[in-house]
Amino acid sequence: MLVEGITSRPVHGGIQVDLFARRHFFALEGEGALALLAQAPALDEAFFDRCEVLYAAADAAGRGYDEALARLKPDLFRQTPTVETLLFRLRGCLSRATMGTRLYVAGGEGFIGRCMNVAAGFGMDAGTVLTEHRGSAARRVQCVHCKGITEDVSESPFACSHCGLNLLVRDHYSKRLGAFQGVCIDAEEPVSASRTPEEVFQ
Amino acid sequence: MSATSTIPVRVSEIEPVAESIKRVRLERPDGRPLPPFSPGAHVVVSMNDGGRIRRNPYSLMSEPDDRGYYAISVLRAEKSRGGSAFIHDVLKAGDELTISHPVNLFPADKRGRKHILIAGGIGITPFIAMMAGFARDNVPFELHYAMRSRAHGAYWRDLVASYGAHRIKPYFSAEYQVLPVATLLENQPLGTHVYVCGPDRLTDCVLDAARNTGWPAANVHTERFLAPAGGKPFDVELIRSGITVHVGEHESILEAVEAAGIDAPCLCRGGACGQCETSVIACDGQLLHHDVYLSDDEKAGGRKIMICVSRFEGTRLSLDL
Ligand code: FES
Known about the structure:
A: Rossmann fold; B: alpha/beta; Ubiquitin-like (UB roll); oxidoreductase (chain B)
């Protein structure tokens, strides 16, 4: 049922650090910590002196990634209890950032979308933010009918958490919103019998 | 350029605006409106210079919303191949020319929060329409404009008067003023875009400074004004057309091919857009690449040539045309 070949589907190219940047912000969620930890041995102290790391452990809590990140001794390290608090801090970081700043985001699909949405609010072009998908493939989906956003969608079709319509999750992605588009799947036969979710994003 | 895409125009005004710079106003002879264009666009002007057709690209600097006329500014090139000298010495009000439809290879990024424009000399032209657009949309911008002297620089007084000294910063090299590119780029807020148009030296300097201050490449925009370089004459064999054309000293391959009646694809005529890319079938000698389109590897590979600006030295060149 997934519509294939939609080119707006984001491609996460990995968070290879850009050594020309003057300042580096990392927004990491859960397993996303590994994306930075994996390249850490190749990076020096001078790099981490120009580095700010925000981390929300999410479902990777207890795996010790927070301690491993703190041991890198970045200029600033903040572990936040939730993704919301991380996004709040990210806004603070970006509001004083300059064009020499590079933002790296690693984590679940929904987390990446939310960070991209914050970055776009500061005028950052999606192409200039480096992203890496780690962990959950659950999607952040906008209902194209009521415009409500539902986080952590792992099935398609699913019921919109705002208006209740049954939505097909498309690969069609809005860079502006950082969300996939969900379209009503049963407009012609609204009370159809069973709707078995066909695709699972996990 | 195919014949259907050209627009006939008449020169309604031509006047000097600075040392070696003339402003030309073009209108349709039938009084109909010209096509709308977006700030940063250019047209290719075809001129009949004593039987020889010259085609040069010029940025449109009139109000993008005013479809009654187009305005361009022309600097007399020091070693003019004919085009700019023709406009300065021969062209007069009432004369007719043809122009291409406007093409924009240097558009402003509408998502930008702030725009920094860096111009050198005649490179000011695309920015005039851009600034009108930014001012209308109420988007923050700054112009940093380097000129040789007060007399050589065009429009800077008018620009300061319309947009204010806080947005328009002129620099005159005759007065030892230097455009501080690196400091300018160092502390810009997120969402800023920088545009540069002017001599290669300025463009390279901005590209270097942007990279060294950590700017992402996507936020740096350049337009290089490349006039086809002259050089030694040579012959080119056109395999598909089955003829050989002679490329004169002051002529590009593209111009020679067009003079022979062959319709070769092209758009910018300045080595930037990639339209005129042509495959090299045989080459006994050296390709002299002058474009900014092909990658260094492609240039070294010798399989492709941008015929609007690049040349050849050697004994035999055959192209897939
Ligand atoms: S016509 Fe644009 S590169 Fe030659």
